[in-house]
Amino acid sequence: MAKGPEGKTILLGVTGSIAAYKAPAILRRLKGLGADVIVAMTKAGTEFVTPLTFRALSGNPVLVEMFEPATEWQIEHVILAQKVDLVLIAPATANIIGKIASGIADDMVSLTVMATKAPVMIAPAMNVDMYENPIVQENIKKLKGVGYTFVEPGVGVLATGVEGRGRLAELEEIVEKVCKLLSEERGR
Ligand SMILES: Cc1cc2nc3c(=O)[nH]c(=O)nc-3n(C[C@H](O)[C@H](O)[C@H](O)COP(=O)(O)O)c2cc1C
């Protein structure tokens, strides 16, 4: 029997965090486990890792622009949102968490989240002061309350050299949670 990500379609949302360089490794692991991975990026995300990297690794077009006449998927973003089995945003910025919590859908990541009924998993990555900001915490609480799953960031030395909570969770933990959530969905 198929388990976890095997045969599943995962939308990987990549946003403008310094931890974006870890997203290609997440993609590779999920693909290695048999998932079809489609990447959507915010414009800020493309400042950190190029869409080309994700296109080459996923074998799929990468969604960034909302209004460019390009792939069938961009036009049919609602169909894409319906097609995916899980949305994983890794890394997730304070900004994207705030947008989603406020119902904003003005980039390919937040737009897909708004249009999907698939489970959404969010792996935040940010500076400790941003992570501890009461507004960010309130947004996380709100999203957890409506059924979004979070992969808590770890504690360690952050990119800014400061120590605290905010590091993107380890790849193994993220992938394990994805496998668990997809297995639970299979059991429904
Ligand atoms: C070098 C650099 C690193 C950044 N790292 C982070 C980060 O780890 N987490 C975060 O929430 N914002 C970070 N930001 C700020 C975001 O890039 C900024 O809020 C951006 O508007 C996020 O856009 P997006 O959510 O659409 O990707 C960083 C900015 C810069 C210039």
| CATH class (first level) name | Alpha Beta
Q: What's the total number of strands? A: 7
CATH architecture title = 3-Layer(aba) Sandwich
Structural class: alpha/beta
Low-confidence stretches: none
What is CATH's topology name? Rossmann fold
Rounded Rg: 15 Å
Order of helices and strands: EHEHHHHEHHEHHEEEH
Protein architecture, described:
The chain is of the alpha/beta class. The protein has one domain (9-186): Flavin prenyltransferase-like (Rossmann fold, 3-Layer(aba) Sandwich), CATH 3.40.50. It is built from 10 helices and 7 strands. A 5-stranded parallel β-sheet has the order 2-1-3-4-5, with helices on both faces. A two-stranded antiparallel ribbon has the order 6-7. α1 links the parallel β1 and β2 (36-41). α1 packs parallel to α3 (51-58) and α6 crosses α9. The longest helix has 16 residues, at 171-186. The chain is globular and about 40 Å long. The two termini are 15 Å apart. The chain binds flavin mononucleotide. Flavin mononucleotide is lined by residues 15-19, 42, 44-45, 93-96, 107, 125-126, 130.
Task: Furnish the topology, listing elements before pairings.
Blueprint: E1 9-14, H1 23-32, E2 36-41, H2 43-46, H3 51-58, H4 72-75, H5 77-83, E3 86-92, H6 94-101, H7 108-115, E4 120-124, H8 128-132, H9 134-145, E5 149-150, E6 154-157, E7 163-167, H10 171-186
Helix pairs in contact: 1-3, 5-7, 6-9
This protein binds flavin mononucleotide.
Residues 15-19, 42, 44-45, 93-96, 107, 125-126, 130 line the site of flavin mononucleotide.
Summarize the structure.
Helices cover 44% and strands 19% of the residues.
